[in-house]
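User: I'm putting together a teaching handout on how sequence relates to shape, and I'd like one worked example. Could you take DUF2256 domain-containing protein from Aureibaculum algae, show the sequence you're using, and then write out its predicted structure as tokens right after it?

Assistant: Happy to. First the sequence, then the structure tokens directly below it.
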Amino acid sequence: MKKQHLPEKICLVCKRPFQWRKKWEKNWAEVKYCSKRCRSNK
């Protein structure tokens, strides 16, 4: 994938867009938060 065409989602906590990362390759459908900090501040 080219960096310009990466999928994006909106974080449920901070409402900011975040892009797909290699570490989320296998579970991208379940990713809801942009960072560990947002996940802990549900």
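A couple of points you could highlight for students: The chain has a mean pLDDT of 92. Strands lie at 8-10, 17-19.
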